[in-house]
């Protein structure tokens, strides 16, 4: 009888994040002094006198060693992950499958024992990538090194206040006020206030580190911010650099950079009176509330389509473009006299009729799916005559000689066929609803004379 011997690598079930029983219980943010929920030590050598003395006696040296390894590129997520990939790549998937069958599946099939089935977790390649990525982010935040140094929110403060950080993932929230670094160990979704140690804040640079791992930095309006760059904060859910309270004013902020952030829901820059130009929110595809009351912005670039609910704008806006934002329930604008470009598409909450009435001739207009109620045909004629004084925009935003307007006009009773035909020829994309249509009939005899 011949026997076939297959050598299987030992501990194929060993991987980052699991315990000796093959269970994924070790999170990326655990440290050597921590315990699991049941009280077990995370680190088996936790009571080692040698290790405790080393950690307690040389914290600065350990920090400096880590910073040196990170800055030199010798220790990085890419380098460590590559080593794992290359080592694991020596064995084909078939070996992993055979190993899993022999250790975990066969006991269930042959003996009805499912005790080991939960350990059949494959190569854990994707879990390892997730764990290592977040581990490097965590240790970088602890030692203020590596990616944490360039992954920042940058503001410039002109009044003393504090920063309250709510981490998106487990990190050490860290804020540098001028030359003073304030840091604490944090947990995801829990706010931590990092108090400003300065006696006075005046044109002071403030850096909030590990920006991409932060969900919120709280209310920054107390700093009377003069510069703000949130472009690195790709998981930030709210930005508050202004306030609507009576008596509040921030005359310092002149520029606000948001970047591309799919999680950002609110931007509040109210009463930042010097904030002008264009604020670009086009990359914030899930923005819900945009508050710019009391600013001097000339335009807010919104995403094309989305779930915007609140839009507050000042009377300094010259370009009002709102496209496919059907969820708006709260739109306010201090005045429309400065608007020279109006582009509203599939956004019924924007009062296009009121805005058009305030615009000067030769402005640019593109309105898709508006609704207007009138009482007689003279109102329609006046509206069309007004549109004739305007220029338009094509779908790509290029200038046209005529306004582009499509929608529905309600409220008419009886209209003549001749008037309706002329109106449709002027603006064919506008549907005119009416109750009755009249026509004039003329009768002629065989000689062509009127009867």
Account of the 3D structure:
The protein is an alpha/beta fold and 451 residues long. The chain contains 8 helices and 23 strands. Strands 16, 18, 19, 20, 21, 22 and 23 form a 7-stranded mixed beta sheet that branches. Strands 4-3-6-1-8-10 form a 6-stranded mixed beta sheet, with no helix packed on it. Helix 8 links the parallel strand 22 (404-416) and strand 23 (430-438).
Uncertain spans: none
Tally of strands: 23
Q: Give the averaged pLDDT, no decimals.
A: 92
The largest pleated sheet is described as: 7 strands, mixed
- Give the radius of gyration: 33 Å
Shape: elongated
Query: What is the terminal-to-terminal distance?
Result: 120 Å
Q: Which structural class is indicated by helix and strand composition?
A: alpha/beta
Proportion of residues in extended strands: 15-25%
Number of helices: 8
Helix content: 10-25%
